[in-house]
Design goal:
This protein is mostly beta strands and 325 residues long. The chain is built from 2 helices and 21 strands. It has a single domain, classed as Glycosyl hydrolase domain, family 43 (Tachylectin-2, Chain A), CATH 2.115.10.
Length: 325
């Protein structure tokens, strides 16, 4: 009995240390970073796929928290997928506050493949794995998230990814990518969501193709990639912008800026101008608690070296201009 209390004290100390441990931004591997700035708690939440972290041991999503965007508390799981789920990869977790609840958009890639032929019948062309965006709901930014339905919000027979939320005049939309592996020339699409985000209304509508960015391609495979959409509406002018990522020869993986000519999600979307070209991408935009606009992305686009990079953005009403880190 005398040995029990020292052991319990040691275990308690280890648990307390784990909960209060902090990590510098450069110590965290993260692809497709997404930051939610929670004003009431003055806390930043950084969402990342668990597999980014060596030794995580599960497929799912974790969240890091910070008050200064420089040091982060050790991650806690917010989504843990069953070991028998058939999921091979988890990508691009995004967390959005909407109508008093919190919604996690996650791309899941399964081990099995779609029962359709490849667009290119060649050994080098990737397998067409089942892939789509699922939506999960929770009562707080760090609560366990539960699925809204048993299936993706993207079409089941599409290789789809990187869904993001945009609300226009009270109507929620998901903007997402239709994979280049299935199309050759990847596409950006939108679909209307039901008011509670539990389902979709109507069929997806294509917004543009990856070839809208001159020279967009991906090496010898010639697939034109669409990745990581995020929409931002300028409070200065009402202009609607989208950032997204692709591969451009001479610039590698990059972030592009497009603008809706109508000021609405339907577009047409023009411009597609590279604003970050240093082998990094899949960006998103948020405001700090001091009111500063920031672009978050991962760089380099080479595993396992990916890290969160933060850049200032200037919104002059007509464009978004990248500043220094």
């Amino acid at each position: 009995m005398k040995q029990i209390f020292p052991v319990l004290f040691c275990l308690y100390g280890m648990l307390a240390a784990a909960q209060t441990a902090t990590l510098a931004t450069d110590a965290i591997r993260v692809r497709d970073p997404f930051i939610f700035a929670d004003a009431p708690s003055q806390t930043y939440y950084l969402y990342a796929q668990a597999a980014n972290r060596a030794g995580s041991g599960y497929q799912g999503v974790e969240v890091y928290t910070s008050t200064d965007l420089k040091t982060w508390k050790a991650p806690r799981p917010v989504l843990t997928l069953p070991a028998d789920s058939g999921v091979a990869m988890v990508w691009a977790p995004e967390m959005h506050a909407y109508q008093g609840a919190y919604y996690l958009f996650v791309t899941l890639t399964f081990r099995d493949t779609l029962p359709v032929a490849k667009p290119v019948d060649a050994p080098h062309w990737p397998r067409m794995h089942r892939r789509g965006t699922w939506i999960y709901r929770a009562e707080s930014p760090a609560s366990p998230f539960k699925p809204l339905k048993d299936g993706p919000h993207t079409p089941a027979d599409w290789m789809a990814l990187d869904g993001t939320l945009y609300v226009e005049d009270g109507t929620p939309y998901m903007i997402f990518c239709h994979e280049w592996v299935q199309l050759i020339d990847g596409a950006m699409a939108r679909v209307e969501l039901t008011p509670d985000l539990s389902g979709t209304r109507g069929e997806p509508v294509r917004l543009f193709s990856a070839s809208a960015a001159p020279g967009a391609r991906r090496g010898a495979k010639e697939g034109k990639v669409t990745d990581g959409p995020f929409l931002y509406k300028s409070p200065k002018s009402g202009a609607l912008f989208m950032i997204w990522s692709t591969f451009i020869p001479g610039k590698d993986y990059c972030v592009l800026l497009a603008r809706s000519e109508s000021g609405r999600v339907a577009g047409p979307w023009t411009g597609h101008t590279p604003i970050y070209t240093t082998n990094g991408g899949h960006g998103m935009i948020f405001k700090t608690f001091e009111g500063q606009l920031r672009l978050a992305l991962h760089q380099p686009n080479t595993g396992p070296l990916e890290r969160l990079r933060l850049f200032g953005l200037t919104d002059d009403g007509t464009a978004l201009r990248l500043e220094s880190e």
